[in-house]
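Page 47, continued from p. 46.
Same chain as before, 377 aa.
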Amino acid sequence: MLHFEDISAIECMNLSEIDLSDRCFCFRFFSEPPHIFIDSVKRFGILYPPVVRAKGDSYQIVDGFRRIEAANVCGIDTIHCRRCKGSLTDADLFFPALSIFLSSGQPHIADQAAILYRASKLLANDIIIDVILPILGYPSSPKVLARLLPLAEMDKELGSALIGEKINHDMALSLMELDPQERKQLVSLFLYYNYSQSKQREIFEHLKDICKKENRSLKDVLPELGWEGDMEDISSYETPLNLRLKKENENRLFRHSGEGWNPGFSNETPMNLRFTKGDENAQKGFSGENKVASGEAFRQRLKERRFPTLTGLENEWKKRIKSLRLPPSISLKPPPYFEGGKYRLSLSFKDIKGFREEMAKLDALEKDDAWIKLFTK
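Result:
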């Protein structure tokens, strides 16, 4: 176990001595530093020294991957680090490295999957289940491990959507069943129309059933339903994560743009240019209500494709109801799936006078041929 006294004082090291390819203790799903992180290192340097340890002819990163990679992107040759003393194995360092990482807060579920993946390369399965899962806030259960671990294999598009809170964990696991191109198409569909989680599940199940019945691939069926879109830059979507990063960037611009000091912090940073691009993308194609209507139209086409008989009955029912010209105060619902059962009639009124008026309307409907045909097959 690593203790505080086993870590040296701050030392200056050449960045070339540090092995950036060794990801043993990289506990983030996305280890690449965001643009705002790079801007900070460029302006102020690395404020909190990373921890490294000697391994072979180079140094292995124990903590501070994004800081070191940001320094590398910025072209910095030397950085200040703290070095682990003594001879320690990767397994010896795993829990201290994890403790340092978790000290910054509860990790996202994608990062938790990355932690479990790294642990699976070093530790026995029972240690992962009995020790690491509880540390992450989960019960000691092989089933929990089986649910989380596959997320470590997500591609960039799916991982970004999960971290950006546009899809949930269960949907991410379902999408992992698809081949990469089909997964990419479906993620892009969900994000473009900003479908809710329940609608995503509905669409996924419809498509899964259609492909099975027709013995066809998802990439063949989607264009026929009117979707040929591909994955756009995830940063263009207004996910909670992107909005938070945008707000942080705006705050920094505001703080450092006064007349007293402005260290060349241009508005045209990569982060700002990304959000400008996002605004431009939002103006293309459907927008506002038209986009919502287009998304609902896609769902309807999907439903018709999966349940042609049912949707035919529903459309015929709507036509007959429309021909009746029922007042807003009267509504009539057919039996579920038109499979026998009872119809559901509802009236709305304010008082006894209103009730009598509605009953009179029903008496008139009873003599209407269109009303009678409504209940005949």
